[in-house]
Design brief:
This protein is of the alpha/beta class. The chain is 31% helix and 24% strand. It contains eleven helices and nine strands. The longest helix has 13 residues, at 26-38. The protein starts with 8 loop residues before the first strand and ends with a helix.
Amino acid sequence: MELKDISEIRSYKKINSLKKNELIDKEIKRKINNKMLENSDLELYTMKYSSDGLKIFGFIFKHKNAKINTPVVIHCRGGNNHPKFLVGQLTIRTFYYHPLFELVKKNKIIIIASAYRGYKLSQGIDEFGGKDVNDIINLYPIIKKYKYTDENKIAIFGVSRGVMMSLLVHKKVDWVKCLILVAGVADMLAEIKKNIRPFYYKKLIKEFNLTKEDLQKRSAINWISELPNKAPILILHGSNDDRISVDNAYIFKEQFKKNKIPHKIVIYENGDHLLLNYINKESIVWIEKYLLK
């Protein structure tokens, strides 16, 4: 089906450039618009789709000559959509500077992403790993129906909070072929005790009304053994991450080894939380090896 024929998609629009009134630094806006002009063979669509009766904002990033049944990477963003405690956004920049950009450019994958409920253009309330996980899972019917995407070849790329979201999705479904996890938390209770960002976690717990039980449910260390298949997982983290401790990468490694889950861990010396310009090569190799073959 084309986008217009997919019932789960309520509306969609092709984006050609950043608007004049976009709240973004002028220099960044110029760079993004230039990159869009330089890559006129690529298409970025915004959409609103149905998830649990809500209209959720999302993106589709593809080559204009996309082939039928192209493998898909679902991008799981970091940050949150709390109205008073907003951290991070999913923007056009995410796609044109994505670590897997070259694979889209070569017409090898299509990237699809949800901005999650509670986003300024979505309905609902962000629950930081609660029912909002369904906003990712509910991309699957779209992937299944869209003529250019292959429902049998889906990977997940999660960053920061998106690592938690990726694993919560993986726990609930059986269609994930491989994962890339960038700078995520494995054990939220242990992370809070490290006191790296005490203000952030106090606000997080308060604003999302999270209990100790909620934090345990959002911590993969407690249920990695419940993952439905042995999808290979790539763990990427920076040694100088001042937002999420690099210790989490080693916790993941230990748990994946214990549960015989194929994995690889890469620690970037002096790498920060965002790992800009660090992770492109490893990410591309992982997708080519475990999704595209």
